[in-house]
Structure formats: structure tokens, C-alpha cells
Design goal:
The chain has 87 residues and is an alpha+beta fold. Helices cover 34% and strands 18% of the residues. It has one domain.
Length: 87
């Protein structure tokens, strides 16, 4: 969990990135569920790869269906274009 500064009269923002803090093993589904119970918002970085990921699908099912927090889902559309280098 990383903490990011805000204005002096607000508590710092804590940001969790699953790719940095969760390790793939048999306990991963429970770990994901446990982590998703804590935050107020979920920010989905929506890429082509994310649309194909069963892990992302599972996280969204937990967040939206089980925890009933679809109204606190923030979707950021990402699109990376590869640029060709011309001489």
C-alpha cells in the first residue's frame, strides 16, 4: 500500500496496486477478496488485456455483485498505440 499526499487538512490517499502486492498462488482468490473489501473505490485500468483477463473478471464480479459497489467503480480507458520509428 502506498500513501500519496493530499492537502494539509485531508488524510493521505492510500493506493493499492494488485500487480505489486499480490503473489500468484492457491490463496490468491481469497487474498483478492480480502483486499477488495477495504477500499471505498475501485479504479479499473481498462486495457485490451484487461478485457481478456479472467482475474479482472473475477475482481469485477466480487466488487459489483458480491460487495454491491458498482456505483464506486471508476473506469479509466487505456489505449497504447505502438508507434513505428521511421528513419
Amino acid at each position: 500500500m502506498r500513501t500519496y499526499a493530499t492537502s494539509w487538512d485531508e488524510p493521505p490517499i492510500r493506493i493499492f496496486k494488485d500487480q505489486e502486492y499480490l503473489l500468484p498462488n492457491e490463496g490468491l482468490p481469497k487474498a483478492i477478496r480480502d483486499v477488495l473489501e477495504k477500499p471505498r473505490f475501485l479504479v479499473l485500468m481498462a486495457s485490451r488485456e484487461a478485457t481478456r483477463s479472467l482475474w479482472v473478471e473475477d475482481e469485477l464480479k466480487i466488487w459489483c455483485r458480491e460487495l454491491k459497489r458498482a456505483h464506486k467503480l471508476l473506469i479509466v480507458l487505456t489505449r497504447l498505440k505502438r508507434r513505428s520509428v521511421r528513419d
